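**User:** Once you have settled down, spend some time on the protein underneath, comparing sequence with structure tokens, and judge whether sequence predicts the tokens.
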Amino acid sequence: MPERKPLTLHRLRAMHAAGEKLAALTCYDATFARVLDDAGVDVLVVGDSLGMVLQGQPSTLPVSMDEMSYHTACVARGNRTAWIVADLPFGSYHEAPEQAWRNASKLMQAGAHMLKLEGGGWTVPTVRFLVERGIPVCAHLGFTPQSVHALGGFRVQGRDAGAATLRAEAQALVDAGAAILVLELVPAPLARDLSSALPIATIGIGAGTGCSGQVLVLHDMLGITSGKRPRFVRDFMQGAANIDDAVRLYVAEVKSGRYPDDALHSY
């Protein structure tokens, strides 16, 4: 099998245009970066979810810029070909586009290829500001973990009247230059409609099989998360001989469209 060339934004766009599903997983260290890259994961997301799965925090809110920079650098050192997306943590881009630029620059210097920020509406000027300065942006709509208290907990977003708002926010983010859109806890029919209507790739998490790709928290996918497992999670370690096999199965199931199963994993 030929060695995979490093993924670029141009190649990700070409894969999306060709109808190939994108397989993404969160990643926080060099060892797992190498394992996931070797197993064919397209996108490594250095998520502020590290606050919950690594630090034991009740939410992503306590994660700092220094911690995000540290983990991004770790992932970059272990990775060879995957595309690295790093989260801008809570409070790092909320004041002004200039603040977002300063903090995005730190993550890019640490090894990120793209930055992710949460929310629509007020984030549009920030997305445009970053893109105009050469920083690729991944937007994030639906359930946005940094707004967990404002949203009333871990709840599905975009039902009923909320669907129109989500559609408008998605289009505005695309118009501002966002290159990828994460849809989290969005009803599967709405996520499918958005994925068909928008010119960019959508990456779903609890948003059904109609998205252009999927992402899971690594620890959830490996079945080592404590507490209640979200409905959209599948434990890929079941029946796998080792972690490498589990990750390869995840990639294969995403790319074939077998995961997620709308009857089991969607809303």
Notes: The longest helix spans residues 162-176. The chain has one domain: 9-265. The chain has a mean pLDDT of 95. The CA atoms of residues 10 and 217 lie 25 Å apart.
